[in-house]
Amino acid sequence: MSTLLRADRVVAPDRVLSRGWVAVEDDRIVAVGEGPPTDEAGVIGPAVDLGDAMVVAGFVDIHVHGGGGATFGTGAEQDRRAIAFHRRHGTTTLQASLVSAPVDQLVRQVRDLAELVADGDLAGVHLEGPWLSPARRGAHDPRFLRDPDPHDVEALLGASPGAVGMVTLAPELRGGLDAVRAVVAAGARAAVGHTDADYGTVRAAREAGASVATHLFNAMPPLGHRSPGPVTALLDDPGCVVELICDGVHLHPAVVHLAVAHAGAGRVALITDAMAAAGVGDGDFRLGSLAVRVTDGVARLVDGGAIAGSTLTMDAAFRYVVDVVGVDPVSASAMASAVPAAVLGLDGDRGRLAAGQRADLVVLSPDLQVRRVMLAGAWVADT
What we know:
By secondary structure, the chain is α/β, with parallel strands linked by helices. Helix 5 links the parallel strand 12 and strand 13. Strands 1, 2, 3, 4, 5, 19, 20 and 21 form an 8-stranded mixed β-sheet that branches. An 8-stranded parallel β-sheet has the order 6-9-10-11-12-13-14-15. It is about 25% helix and about 25% strand.
């Protein structure tokens, strides 16, 4: 099955194509261009004119706990509901995140989610805890936080080999640097987050193999002119990808601009950190074992008031960085798709509108609202 998609704007990896087109054959992009389609398109099937739309690569979310009223790790029906919800908002690839819990419970959750990883519905599992700093725990139950014991690390990484794609931990904990090495040796990404570490300890974690900053600025000490802390160590390192939650709550737009200007779009990954409340509205929910109340779209712990994830979707994050922060669409697309795909090791397969990539794309209106979503060459229903 071949299809030619035409639109006012097509966001290619290096520029925006005006009256651009994307040629799709089966589940692959075979060509992308501007103006009248060339013989390179090689399209036999019908042309679909998307009018005044902007077409971007399918979004990739490497840090998401749930959405649409469902939480990852609480049963297959919930898992699939969360995946379907985020797909309707343009996320064609996602990694399911788990919050801190007893190790045996996390092992069971990883094994359950591994089935979806094997089926290709998830790109992996992200362990956000339990090896986090109690001082920077955010919305993690302090009863379950612990130092990374080697046996626990081995149990979780080996629960279903290859399923765990990323582990967030605080490197200053006893055994923290060894845990970073173990995560990397297992083929997963080690991320620094929920940490009270100083600059030197974070640099040591980078040398041990950590390569991602979990929601930079949040759940870590602020940048200080005498104590530069983790923000400086992570933001200033050319080999580190920094996650940003761009919902207008977690970060001021000037801080987002600062991070993007310093790191460059090629090192920034937009994430949602979404919980079950995303797409549901205000009310009472749970994140792991903790009670959460959502008011005016902001999720906070009932006990203590800490921000508890978000109600963000990736299309909203894309709109925010373009409309509020002032990031150009090419850079925003890299941050929402290409960079997180590279974190997952999938940059050769998805994250860009380019020949050879999987045909994952999002059709946006001129005001950047989702109109249609394509996953592996097929339109996703109910967008």
